[in-house]
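Quick question, first post here. What does this chain look like in 3D?
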Amino acid sequence: MAEKTLLETVTENAVFVAEFAGIVIVMVAVAYVMEKMAKRRDGSRERILSTRKVAVCGMFSAIAAVLMVIEVPVPFAPPFYGLDLSELPVLIGTFAFGPVAGVLIEFCKILLKIIFKPTTTAFVGELANFVIGCSFLLPASAVYLLHKTRKNAVIAVTAGTLSMTVFGTAFNGIYLLPKFAQLFGMPLEQIVAMGTQINGSIGNITTFVIFAVAPLNLLKGGLVSVITMFLYKKISPILKEGTKNQK
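> Answer (accepted):
Ran it through. Tokens below.
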């Protein structure tokens, strides 16, 4: 029985790692197609990833990883949920260098975070952060690539925030929370009960994600959007200096 349990555990974790890798590949592919289409439309010959872009993306990844470690608990969600601003350098990097750079910053952020602070959620929390972060940056980037104006940037971050809220809520309820319960060998009802202790309106997985996850994503997206709008135009000339000449 012990060997079977160990085998099941190893198999479940291997499957999860494979799913994580597959999601990363899909996100990079989507970002690449988006960026190629935008460059073809604009007639741009600028490289998607130049040496300088890679270097700056590495710096942004490190900043994002540090911000990811600094989590602030929120009163409306269980303690394994926390508010962090790690999407701030990711979104700034995305606006400056495009969606491919954004997804790579997001992924490298996760790798560096695991070095700074090992996972306590069997990597489910790290997957959640990556995928939900991409659900924010990819729609925002798609809108911003159409017209790189301040007005369109506001529309872009609004679209990104709404996308992250809707997708993140659904993804938690359909995949992440059941996967977390499976990997930790606990009933899903136990996780729901943790939410019920905080908010009596939470009675099942649907109300859990509506009253705990959705407000968290909305709050995070709103804060990141406001700070990005304040900072981006001030630092974008420095970030982009020299990249247009690298073909």
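The chain has a mean pLDDT of 88.
The chain is about 80% helix and 0% strand.
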